[in-house]
Design brief:
This protein has 366 residues and is mainly beta. 6% of the residues lie in helices and 50% in strands. It is built from three helices and 16 strands. It starts with a helix and ends with a strand.
Length: 366
């Protein structure tokens, strides 16, 4: 903690000589409540968390970004404990090219929604808790985006051909360690010009249609990612009609634990709708993760799959369909200050494992 504070003070002193250093961030504080149908206990508590972003622009071609997460110990919701680096990278964009290169702890570009996942006190959508698919990929962390220590390239293709991003990392949710000597690989293609391609240009009520496809491969065998070999494919899309945003994805996820008798394949779905009305931000989202039946009739799922997602409760079995329903209401009180309210229901095939959650936080950005 002292080293982090020293680094911030050093950067602040340097800012007098280098005004290209920008500080920004976010913070929230409020109450959360989690309860499971099969238990009489209700876990309710006040929680707080904050993010500090440090952006350094050395030139038009060279920049760097540091994100620090701050929180208290033993957060029920999964906020950062004490102080931790959320991200750090050095980014270089050569002249006359539409490609940038970033090295460090980078956001893994799996799906067009990967950059919009909540991480600690930062929310880029109407929802604080991430959906089931991204939570599973993050090792059942509900307030953490996908990251890895490695390199990220982002390329804008000519004309209306969209963009292509790729990343090679030590492993998904792995920063500076690579005990298996293998690497994770992620590739993403997306295009936001489908409104013109589909000849919907005359429809002024509709914004651009963005469609994408992604691939992920990771062989990091640890308790965060699980599995000896993880692969995933995703198809996703979103658009806005009359100020109402719609989006979703389908993901095929394979968690290969090396045991031929278990179910390794899962179908994952997510869909959402959100809108802003005056000072209110409304959102509803549903996501599900379902084991795929195997020809051998196995009733046991991959040991890499953890069915316990939220509230530190234990599910009786992993061989179950899980659906997460989320409803959110944000009340904007000032330009950078709002009250965020969210209700989450994790529904299991065995209803005794259902978890109901209520969150209410005061949140601000700067």
């Amino acid at each position: 903690m002292k080293k982090i504070i020293f680094t911030i003070l050093l950067l602040s002193n340097l800012s007098f000589a280098m005004p290209f250093i920008t500080l920004s961030g976010s913070a929230l504080s409020g109450i959360s409540s989690y309860s499971q149908r099969s238990q009489d206990t209700n876990n309710s508590q006040f929680e707080s968390a904050a993010n500090l972003n440090i952006d350094l622009d050395f030139s038009e071609k060279l920049s760097s970004s540091i994100v620090l997460g701050l929180g208290t110990m033993e957060s029920e919701s999964g906020f950062t404990q004490k102080a931790d680096f959320q991200a750090f990278n050095i980014k270089y964009t050569p002249g006359n090219f539409n490609t940038s290169y970033a090295i460090g702890i980078v956001t893994v570009p799996f799906g067009q929604f990967s950059e919009f996942q909540s991480y600690n006190a930062s929310m880029s959508t109407p929802f604080l808790i991430n959906d089931l698919g991204y939570s599973q990929l993050a090792g059942n962390e509900n307030i953490l985006d996908l990251y890895g220590g490695g390199i990220l390239t982002q390329s804008k293709l000519p004309g209306q051909w969209g963009s292509f991003d790729a990343s090679i990392v030590n492993g998904i949710m792995s920063d500076n360690t690579n005990s298996d000597n293998g690497f994770g690989f992620v590739a993403r293609y997306k295009n936001n010009n489908f409104k013109d391609i589909f000849n919907f240009s005359s429809n002024e009520s509709m914004d651009d249609i963005t469609l994408g496809i992604s691939y992920l491969s990771d062989n990091t065998p640890n308790n965060l990612t699980g599995g000896l070999n993880k692969t995933a494919y995703m198809i996703d899309g979103k658009t806005t009609v009359n100020n109402i945003e719609f989006g979703g994805y389908y993901m095929n996820l394979n968690l290969n634990d090396g045991d031929q008798s278990t179910k390794d394949e899962f179908n994952v779905l997510m869909g959402y709708v959100s809108t802003a009305l005056d000072q209110f931000i409304l959102g509803f989202r549903a996501s599900s993760i379902m084991p795929v039946d195997q020809p051998n009739g196995s009733t046991t799922v991959s040991s890499s799959f953890d069915p316990d997602f939220i509230g530190n409760f234990n599910s009786s079995t992993g061989n179950t369909d899980i659906v997460r329903y989320q409803g959110s209401l944000g009340i904007i009180l000032e330009d950078n200050f709002k009250i965020h309210n969210e209700i989450i229901m994790d529904s299991y095939s065995d209803s005794d494992n259902d978890v109901f959650s209520v969150l209410s936080y005061a949140s601000f950005t700067f």
